TrEMBL record, chain A:
<dbReference type="InterPro" id="IPR028431">
    <property type="entry name" value="NADP_DH_HndA-like"/>
</dbReference>
<dbReference type="Pfam" id="PF01257">
    <property type="entry name" value="2Fe-2S_thioredx"/>
</dbReference>
<keyword id="KW-0001">2Fe-2S</keyword>
<comment type="similarity">
    <text>Belongs to the complex I 24 kDa subunit family.</text>
</comment>
<keyword id="KW-0479">Metal-binding</keyword>
<dbReference type="InterPro" id="IPR036249">
    <property type="entry name" value="Thioredoxin-like_sf"/>
</dbReference>
<keyword id="KW-0411">Iron-sulfur</keyword>
<dbReference type="InterPro" id="IPR002023">
    <property type="entry name" value="NuoE-like"/>
</dbReference>
<dbReference type="InterPro" id="IPR042128">
    <property type="entry name" value="NuoE_dom"/>
</dbReference>
<keyword id="KW-0408">Iron</keyword>
<dbReference type="InterPro" id="IPR041921">
    <property type="entry name" value="NuoE_N"/>
</dbReference>
<protein>
    <submittedName>
        <fullName>NADH:ubiquinone oxidoreductase subunit E</fullName>
    </submittedName>
</protein>
Length: 159, 625
């Protein structure tokens, strides 16, 4: 959080969301979803903040955050390339797509480029198996992707 | 829509609304009025079906056809391979792979000039001929749609269309004319079993939840479809969300619960939004909330989001996740029917199971239990994927053979390759071989051949896929998804995965194969929950049916399918090599030697098997194997 004014605004947004909840005891996962929406990730400070607000021990919050793969404690790039590695995509050679992305962006899966522009991720089945192999860039879905399509797709997200 | 304050009002509403589906239900050669339904499922939306709908509408308007032709979205037709799909009613014409740019030509040709647009019709792969209508397509001939009855028929965002197709009539009948016991009896008699994997009789589960005396009980819909390659629950929620709401309310009435939760994957944004729309409509119409249809029965539903944990498909883990904790399973008993969510009796059912319930109430248990096999009644939705021509969602009667599904409905193996196996049951299931293609599928027959029904994922594997690699893929999945609570699953599966890796690298011995089998059986017997108990299935079943392929990796150090990289050997065929030096230039470790216009040679010791030379050779003079 470099920009403290901005960060304060984000905390306020999260706080008013938590205050609006009817029952707080069981809302932890919803709150974490919202927090990740607001901040893009859930760093330690945000976890501590949620703990205070919900009156839940920080250890439990960390336990939940680390249990679910949807939650991340690291910031991601502006464009997240998620390659589906569900079975349908796997048998249609999704691993070759992952390799090509890693080679072209020069990072490994799970990493973010230094300019904070790109992140590569693998995800489990988006349920669009008819389009296998599938790559998602943020919310945009690319189906029946071939290795040679990768540079063209990346070039659409250059700034 | 006005509030529906009695069962009678609902039935009046139904008769009033019924005509809106006339064009879609009665197949006619032609009619002055027409309707276009465009698939609005995740697959087709990813291929721009929203823009397609917009373009179709503006073309319809441009040609002044707005009062005669209507275009709208509908749920998944199941024919995902060839999406986006546009279906024209009443003549039942089925267009495939329609892009937004095709809208103008489609409207001009079919709607203005009255000619079918040949170019966009589906070509049957077996006869290589264009097919005019949906009911002539091999893909649909053997299907029977109960759970998917409204997908491809109604607009999932309009409660009016659901009601027009007898929606909420089953709920109305239950709460106004039947006792809870009668509802449970009907579901029991139907023989419906859980479609999420286990196959437990649904009526019994309801009865067990009804029995305990408790002021508060819960109904949970398990929409945490984590099995990679299965997408039927998503499609039902996207295409027919009201049927799930209706069935959950029926379940609530039967067991004595007033509150329901849908636990859904956060990765399914479209399904979530359609469900939310449907919930609001149902509440506004008095079909959800206090005193439904003017009776004493009150029921409401809340959505809870998953956060990416496969184990949460297990009912006790799912319950802990709804409670806001880590989704770790606990031992049963106590079963959720006695002590579930917040220690109250809870009835947990899968989406597809629920989708069957309204039809069972409407048409009766005796109609339902005539469909299917001796022990497994009704239909099952399968998600066909992998190396098959017609990837998609199919609903077939239990007892059908795999051969019918793969070769008749699925159109056979992609690119004319040879069939190797079909994997069912996802990470908990196993592989079925060519010899077993004629087994009639139901819960029992699949377990007897070492696989399982699971949620209905069906992945077709061809000769180019290595069976050890497939087993390794599933193990990697389970290792990642193991919650870590019990040791057999946490440590055992990790060791299994390492052994499989050793095999694919050519470092394993025959003793390793024996040890692996032992370990797999131990994990099966000693794990805490279903995830661990079934995790070794992909290994055991592939070892059972494809032992030769394991032996090839272990003894001969080769991968017959040419997949396992460390076992590959790239060699130059001297007769074919033209000495162009391309291979030597692309080799990253400079292990290819040879002069211009002379035969080249690959130094096997230095080769890192990257395959660059194989791809670069212009005359296919390099072999892999």
């Amino acid at each position: 959080m470099q920009d403290t004014a901005l960060s304060k605004e984000l905390y306020q947004e999260l706080e008013s969301y938590i205050d609006s909840l009817e029952s707080k005891e069981t809302a932890l996962i919803e709150v974490l979803h919202r927090a990740q929406n607001i901040f893009g990730y859930i760093p330690k400070d945000v976890q501590l903040f949620i703990g205070e607000k919900l009156n839940v021990p920080a250890s439990k919050i960390y336990g939940v955050v680390s249990f679910y793969s949807y939650f991340t404690t690291e910031p991601k790039g502006k464009y997240v390339f998620s390659v589906c590695t569900g079975t349908a995509c796997f048998v249609r050679k999704a691993d070759a797509i992952v390799k090509e992305l890693e080679k072209t962006l020069n990072i490994k899966t799970g990493e973010t480029t230094e300019n904070k522009l790109y992140t590569i991720e693998c995800l489990r089945c988006v349920g669009a198996c008819g389009l296998a192999p599938v790559v998602m860039v943020n919310d945009e879905v690319y189906g029946k992707v071939k290795v040679e399509d990768i540079p063209k797709i990346i070039s659409k997200y250059s700034e | 829509m006005n509030r529906i304050d009695s069962f009678k009002t609902l039935m009046d509403k139904q008769s009033e609304l019924m005509p809106i589906l006339n064009l879609r239900k009665e197949s006619m050669e032609s009619s002055e009025y027409k309707e276009l339904l465009i698939c609005g499922g995740t697959g087709c939306v990813s291929s721009q079906s929203n823009l397609l709908l917009e373009n179709l509408n503006s073309e319809i308007e441009k040609h002044g056809l707005s009062d005669k032709v209507k275009a709208s979205i509908t749920g998944c037709f199941g024919f995902c391979e060839k999406g986006p799909i546009v279906k024209v009613f009443p003549e039942d014409v089925f267009y495939v792979e329609v892009t937004p740019d095709d809208a103008a030509e489609l409207v001009k040709s079919h709607l203005v000039d009255g000619h079918k647009l040949e170019r966009l019709l589906y070509e049957e792969p077996t006869i290589k001929e264009k097919v005019n209508t949906q009911h002539e397509m091999e893909f649909y001939k053997k299907q029977e749609r109960i759970a998917l009855r409204n997908c491809g028929l109604i607009n999932p965002e309009l409660i009016e269309e659901y009601i027009a197709n007898r929606g909420y009539e089953a709920l109305g009948r239950c709460i106004s004319e039947m006792t809870p016991e009668e509802v449970i009896e009907e579901v029991k008699l139907s023989g419906l079993r859980g479609r999420g994997g286990g196959g437990f009789p649904t009526g019994l589960k309801w009865e067990f939840t009804r029995r305990p005396k408790s002021e508060v009980k819960y109904v949970v819909c398990n929409a945490d479809e984590g099995d990679p390659g299965a997408f039927m629950d998503r499609s039902i929620l996207e295409g027919d969300p009201h049927s799930i709401i209706e069935a959950m309310a029926i379940n609530g009435y039967a067991v004595g619960a007033q509150k329901g939760f849908v636990y859904i994957r956060a990765e399914y944004p479209l399904a979530i939004s359609r469900l939310r729309t449907a919930l609001n409509q149902a509440r506004e119409s008095g079909l959800l909330g206090n005193n439904i249809m003017g009776t004493d029965f009150s029921f409401d539903i809340e959505i809870k989001y998953g956060a990416g944990a496969f184990v949460c498909g297990e009912e006790t883990a799912l319950i802990h996740s709804i409670e806001g904790s880590r989704g770790e399973p606990t031992t049963k008993p106590p079963f959720p029917a006695e002590s579930g969510l917040w220690e109250k009796p809870t009835s947990v059912n899968n989406v597809e199971t629920f989708a069957n319930v309204p039809s069972i109430i409407l048409k009766g248990a005796s109609w339902f239990n005539k469909i299917g096999s001796e022990t497994s009644k009704g239909t099952k939705v399968f998600a066909l994927a992998g190396k098959i021509n017609n990837v998609g969602l199919v609903e077939v009667p239990m007892g059908i053979t795999l051969r019918e599904i793969i070769y008749e409905i699925g159109g056979g193996i992609k690119d004319g390759k040879a069939f190797k196996a079909v994997q069912t049951g996802g990470p908990s299931g196993g592989c079925i071989t060519a010899d077993q293609l004629d087994v009639a599928i139901d819960y029992e027959s699949l377990s007897s051949i070492g696989s399982m029904m699971g949620s209905g994922g069906m992945i077709v594997i061809d000769e180019d896929n290595c069976i050890v690699d497939i087993a390794k893929f599933y193990l990697e999945f389970t290792v990642e998804e193991s919650c870590g609570k019990c040791t057999p699953c946490r440590v055992g599966n990790k060791r299994l995965y390492e052994m499989l890796t050793k095999i694919t690298e050519g470092k394993a011995t025959i003793e390793d194969l024996d040890a692996m089998k032992n370990l797999a059986e131990t994990i099966k017997m000693t794990s805490l929950c279903g995830l661990g108990q079934t995790a070794p299935n992909p290994v055991l079943s592939t070892m059972n049916f494809f032992y030769d392929e394991y032996l090839a990796h272990v003894q001969d150090k080769t991968c017959p399918s040419g997949v396992c990289q460390s076992l590959l050997k790239y060699t130059v065929v001297p007769e074919k090599c033209i000495g162009c030096t391309k291979c030597a230039r692309v080799c990253p470790v400079s292990c290819i030697s040879g002069k211009v216009k002379e035969v080249h040679y690959i130094d096997q010791k230095a080769c890192i098997k990257c395959g660059a030379c194989f791809d670069a050779c212009p005359v296919n003079a390099i072999t892999k194997g």
